[in-house]
Design brief:
The chain has 395 residues and is an all-beta fold. The protein has strands spanning 13-16, 20-25, 31-37, 42-43, 69-73, 88-93, 99-104, 112-120, 127-135, 141-143, 146-151, 164-166, 171-177, 188-190, 193-194, 197-198, 209-213, 221-226, 231-236, 244-249, 269-274, 283-285, 290-292, 295-301, 308-310, 313-320, 323-330, 334-342, 345-354, 360-365, 375-380, 386-392. The strands form seven sheets. Strands 6, 7, 8, 9, 12, 18, 19, 23 and 24 form a nine-stranded antiparallel sheet that branches. The protein has a seven-stranded antiparallel sheet with strand order 5-11-21-20-17-13-14, with no helix packed on it. A four-stranded antiparallel sheet has the order 1-2-3-4, with no helix packed on it. Strand 3 (31-37) and strand 4 (42-43) form a beta hairpin. The protein is globular and about 65 Å long. The N and C termini lie far apart (61 Å). The model has no long low-confidence stretch (mean pLDDT 94).
Length: 395
């Protein structure tokens, strides 16, 4: 007979403002466990209801736990060794009113020390993560550092067939897959269309797939969007430092079953970010050296599938039924302008007021731009500086 499940209470550290609630689990790798977008009452990350060893992860750890949220993976690739280790967490309110948590590896004699600073500014619907990796030994070290986000945006706690992976590059390198119609590990394929399949849509997948952006992370963003709930997640990062961007999904037509990692029908997809472009390349630090960077993460909702994102927010743009539909989700209260050019000629300029509770939406008659060449959409702030731009080709 199977043993009865055991219950245990874990400490939760919470950061909160008017728009977001960020939950951190110190005893389970110091992971960000969940982020709630208050205006839409939607969850950003996958949330496992049990702690169950899976068949994956380093063999000598007897099974990685697919708990959800964002975990910090080091000093080896995949899920590292620290996803289940208690980390130190110190939470405080900064001078500017930001809620901050400093998450740190334990002081246990290791040569590689990591601190991840999570900051939730007041009045903002984003949070930043700032990894700082230090070599505290007296010799050079080679190592892997990745963080992995397990995502299932919306109330279902399971992605739909229509979930979209929004990756801005043009090619990807396969890491692993069970799909015989795709190249094996190391194979490079165009993104997102391959052999008549749109691989940006989860429902076009058969078995599991993991891939890296090729030849390295494109930047400045990557994300997912769940049309069934009209919510998604965005990672904005400096690709010149954090050169690794990886996507993983369990598959669809013949997916890996949920029983591997949970006791219900929940499921997830993953976004990984790391220092090196792939798992076969390693980072290096000299004795006493350190490396760090800052990323901005945020949930996005109410604009449909976005096509571009940056620190200010996310933009959607698509044409159909005689109009070009445009929408902008702002991570803070925003006042500026939207302009549209077709073939180098400005065809629209409108004032924009948007915020985490009130995305901006508008339409443009397709006849104004049809046949005029590429359409460029720009969002400008109150000073006239462009904070987000996207160019769409006309068929």
């Amino acid at each position: 007979d199977a043993p009865e499940p055991q219950k245990r209470i874990y400490r939760v550290v919470m950061l909160e403002n008017a728009y977001l609630q960020v939950l951190i689990l110190p005893e389970l790798g110091g992971r960000i466990w969940q982020v709630i977008h208050k205006p839409s009452d939607s969850a950003m990350f996958y949330q496992n209801s049990v702690i169950k060893p899976s068949p994956w992860g380093p063999l000598d750890q007897l099974g990685w736990y697919g708990l959800g949220g964002i975990e910090w993976n080091l000093p080896v690739n995949e899920h590292g060794y620290d996803w289940g280790t208690p980390w130190g967490v110190r939470a405080f309110v900064d001078e500017d009113g930001a809620a901050v948590a400093e998450i740190a590896t334990p002081d246990d004699g290791r040569y590689l020390a990591v601190t991840v600073t999570v900051t939730l500014p007041p009045g903002a619907a984003y949070f930043t993560i700032e990894p700082r990796i230090r070599n505290i030994s007296d010799q050079a070290l080679q190592f892997d550092y990745w963080h992995t986000a397990m995502l299932a945006p919306g109330p279902a706690n399971r992605p739909s067939a229509d979930l979209r992976f929004i990756v801005p590059g043009e090619a990807v390198r396969i890491h692993s897959t069970g799909d015989p119609a795709l190249p094996g590990p190391g194979g490079v394929i165009p993104w997102p269309d391959y052999a008549g399949r749109d691989l940006s849509r989860l429902g076009e997948w058969d078995q599991y797939v993991g891939f890296f952006e090729y030849p390295a992370a494109h930047g400045p963003f990557v994300g997912v969007y769940e049309p069934a709930a009209d919510v998604g997640a965005v990672r904005v990062f400096p690709a010149d430092v954090a050169q690794g961007s990886k996507v993983f999904g369990l598959g669809w037509g013949d997916a890996l079953v949920s029983e591997y990692f949970t006791d219900n029908a929940s499921a997830y997809v993953e976004l990984h970010g790391g220092l090196a472009p792939t798992f076969t390349e390693r980072a290096q630090l000299t004795a006493g050296g350190s490396v760090g960077w800052e990323e901005r993460w945020y949930p996005v909702t109410g604009i449909g599938e976005f096509v571009a994102a940056d620190r200010a927010g996310a933009l959607s743009a698509d044409a159909g039924e005689g109009v070009v539909r445009l929408a902008f989700y702002a991570v803070e209260q925003f006042a500026g302008r939207l302009s549209v050019k077709a073939g180098g000629r400005e065809v629209m300029r409108r004032a924009v007021a948007a915020g985490p509770e009130t995305p901006y939406r508008t339409t443009l008659p397709l006849e104004l731009v049809e046949g005029a060449g590429p359409i460029t959409v720009m969002i400008e702030d109150g000073t006239g500086a462009v904070v987000l731009a996207y160019t769409m080709e006309q068929e």
